[in-house]
Amino acid sequence: MIGRLRGVVAEIAEEDALVDVGGVGYVVRCGARTLSRLPAIGDETVLHVETQWSEATGMRLYGFNTRDERHAFVVLQAIQGVGPKAALGVLDVLSPGELAQAAARDDKAAVARAQGVGPKLAQRIVTELKDKPLTDGGVAGFHAQVQAHAAPHAPTASGEAVAALMGLGVAEPAARRLVEQASLRLGEDAEAGALIKAALQELGR
Q1: Which of 144 and 132 is assigned the larger pLDDT?
Q2: Which has the closest alpha carbon to 34: 75, 91, 83?
């Protein structure tokens, strides 16, 4: 599962962006707010990513500027009738903090401004979000504590390549085997991007 992407913005479309990470292009579906805040094509960006899978669409990546936006996106979809498109629409018109305030005030009109969200669904959203946290502060705090006590270490190129393949749906044993084969072909000094490319070529055979 992919949780974050750091790479170069290669393309920006109406509903998604193409992010080049070590030579591998990831299509990331984003809301208008996120797309408008992306840097220029050719510049580096970091996107917080929610990975979803369905039989109809396969794997899709949804990208956000902040961890809180990604968390709110997940919380919204737990509400009956709210799919990815409606959740993105809500976050286009309200930040997680503004959404929490709207829920506290029972302000369904603010939520109904989102594309694809009618009055009934807006009422359901504000009702169900009243006592739910829309920030990821607990998770962020946990990671901060772990990082404070853990010795820092740089991820290896092979490790990054394996993680990238697993994010694309390849099982861990197969991902490790493909990366090992790629490493043998390219040498121990091969970068993560080259290993990922070679592994994907091997997978496609």
Answers
A1: 132
A2: 91
